[in-house]
Amino acid sequence: MNLFPSDLVEGGVKFGDYLIPLSRDVIAATSNKQVTVGARPEDLELTTERGQGLPVTVDLVEELGADGYLYGHAEVNGRRTDVVARVDGRTHPSINDLVYLHPAQNHTHVFDVESGERISQAVSIS
Protein backbone atom coordinates (compact mmCIF):
# COMPACT_ATOMS: atom_id res chain seq x y z
CA MET A 1 0.00 0.00 0.00
CA ASN A 2 1.17 3.52 -0.81
CA LEU A 3 1.15 5.75 2.27
CA PHE A 4 1.08 9.54 2.00
CA PRO A 5 1.22 12.12 4.80
CA SER A 6 -1.67 14.47 4.06
CA ASP A 7 -3.12 17.62 5.60
CA LEU A 8 -6.65 17.75 6.93
CA VAL A 9 -8.52 20.73 5.53
CA GLU A 10 -12.11 21.94 5.65
CA GLY A 11 -14.23 19.07 4.34
CA GLY A 12 -11.52 16.49 3.81
CA VAL A 13 -7.88 15.80 3.15
CA LYS A 14 -5.57 17.22 0.46
CA PHE A 15 -4.02 14.76 -1.98
CA GLY A 16 -1.85 16.95 -4.15
CA ASP A 17 -4.32 19.39 -5.75
CA TYR A 18 -7.16 16.95 -5.16
CA LEU A 19 -9.58 17.11 -2.22
CA ILE A 20 -10.66 13.77 -0.79
CA PRO A 21 -13.92 14.48 1.05
CA LEU A 22 -14.14 13.08 4.58
CA SER A 23 -17.10 12.83 6.90
CA ARG A 24 -17.12 14.84 10.12
CA ASP A 25 -16.81 11.55 12.03
CA VAL A 26 -13.50 10.75 10.35
CA ILE A 27 -12.15 14.26 10.88
CA ALA A 28 -13.24 14.14 14.54
CA ALA A 29 -11.49 10.77 15.04
CA THR A 30 -8.10 12.49 15.27
CA SER A 31 -6.84 15.60 17.01
CA ASN A 32 -4.01 15.96 14.49
CA LYS A 33 -3.97 18.32 11.53
CA GLN A 34 -2.36 15.61 9.44
CA VAL A 35 -3.32 12.02 8.61
CA THR A 36 -1.82 9.26 6.51
CA VAL A 37 -3.71 8.42 3.32
CA GLY A 38 -3.32 4.86 2.04
CA ALA A 39 -4.04 3.60 -1.48
CA ARG A 40 -3.08 0.33 -3.14
CA PRO A 41 -1.32 0.44 -6.54
CA GLU A 42 -4.42 -0.89 -8.31
CA ASP A 43 -6.55 1.83 -6.68
CA LEU A 44 -4.61 4.84 -7.98
CA GLU A 45 -5.99 6.44 -11.12
CA LEU A 46 -3.66 8.17 -13.57
CA THR A 47 -4.21 11.34 -15.56
CA THR A 48 -1.96 13.85 -17.27
CA GLU A 49 -4.29 16.75 -16.39
CA ARG A 50 -2.79 19.23 -13.94
CA GLY A 51 -4.76 19.69 -10.75
CA GLN A 52 -6.30 16.21 -10.83
CA GLY A 53 -4.23 14.67 -8.06
CA LEU A 54 -0.72 14.27 -6.74
CA PRO A 55 1.99 15.22 -9.26
CA VAL A 56 4.28 12.21 -9.75
CA THR A 57 7.47 11.94 -11.80
CA VAL A 58 7.78 8.56 -13.51
CA ASP A 59 11.01 6.70 -12.65
CA LEU A 60 10.23 3.38 -14.35
CA VAL A 61 7.33 1.40 -15.81
CA GLU A 62 7.54 -2.37 -15.42
CA GLU A 63 5.66 -3.93 -18.36
CA LEU A 64 3.86 -7.16 -17.45
CA GLY A 65 1.69 -7.82 -20.51
CA ALA A 66 -1.73 -6.22 -20.15
CA ASP A 67 -0.72 -4.57 -16.87
CA GLY A 68 2.24 -2.49 -15.87
CA TYR A 69 3.53 -0.99 -12.67
CA LEU A 70 4.54 2.64 -12.61
CA TYR A 71 7.26 3.44 -10.10
CA GLY A 72 7.63 7.13 -9.46
CA HIS A 73 8.14 9.77 -6.85
CA ALA A 74 6.38 12.87 -5.59
CA GLU A 75 7.21 15.64 -3.19
CA VAL A 76 4.87 15.45 -0.22
CA ASN A 77 5.33 18.02 2.54
CA GLY A 78 8.85 18.73 1.34
CA ARG A 79 9.96 15.09 1.31
CA ARG A 80 10.41 12.62 -1.51
CA THR A 81 7.69 9.97 -1.41
CA ASP A 82 7.92 6.88 -3.61
CA VAL A 83 4.74 5.80 -5.39
CA VAL A 84 3.65 2.58 -7.11
CA ALA A 85 0.57 2.51 -9.36
CA ARG A 86 -0.85 -0.11 -11.71
CA VAL A 87 -1.14 1.19 -15.28
CA ASP A 88 -1.97 -0.16 -18.72
CA GLY A 89 0.93 -2.35 -19.81
CA ARG A 90 0.68 -1.32 -23.45
CA THR A 91 -0.01 2.42 -23.32
CA HIS A 92 1.65 4.03 -20.36
CA PRO A 93 3.77 7.07 -19.49
CA SER A 94 7.51 7.14 -20.10
CA ILE A 95 10.43 7.74 -17.76
CA ASN A 96 10.55 11.36 -16.50
CA ASP A 97 6.95 12.09 -17.55
CA LEU A 98 4.89 14.08 -15.06
CA VAL A 99 1.54 12.45 -14.30
CA TYR A 100 -1.14 13.01 -11.69
CA LEU A 101 -2.52 10.26 -9.47
CA HIS A 102 -5.55 10.17 -7.21
CA PRO A 103 -7.26 7.31 -5.36
CA ALA A 104 -10.18 5.58 -7.06
CA GLN A 105 -13.63 6.15 -5.61
CA ASN A 106 -14.26 4.08 -2.46
CA HIS A 107 -10.64 2.89 -2.29
CA THR A 108 -8.96 5.37 0.04
CA HIS A 109 -7.95 4.61 3.61
CA VAL A 110 -7.18 7.20 6.29
CA PHE A 111 -4.91 6.49 9.27
CA ASP A 112 -4.17 8.46 12.44
CA VAL A 113 -0.51 9.58 12.33
CA GLU A 114 0.13 8.98 16.04
CA SER A 115 -1.53 5.62 16.64
CA GLY A 116 -1.31 4.29 13.07
CA GLU A 117 -4.89 3.06 13.43
CA ARG A 118 -7.32 3.29 10.57
CA ILE A 119 -9.89 5.98 11.36
CA SER A 120 -12.10 5.44 8.35
CA GLN A 121 -13.74 2.78 6.36
CA ALA A 122 -12.97 3.05 2.66
CA VAL A 123 -13.63 6.71 1.91
CA SER A 124 -16.03 7.58 -0.87
CA ILE A 125 -14.62 10.16 -3.29
CA SER A 126 -17.11 12.27 -5.19
Could you characterize what this model shows?
This protein is mainly beta and 126 residues long. The chain has one domain: OB fold (Dihydrolipoamide Acetyltransferase, E2P) (Beta Barrel), CATH 2.40.50.140. 4% of the residues lie in helices and 53% in strands. The protein has one helix and ten strands. The strands form two sheets. A five-stranded antiparallel β-sheet has the order 3-2-1-4-10, with no helix packed on it. The chain has a five-stranded antiparallel β-sheet with strand order 5-9-6-7-8, with no helix packed on it. A hairpin with a 2-residue loop joins strand 7 and strand 8. The two termini are 22 Å apart. The mean pLDDT is 87.
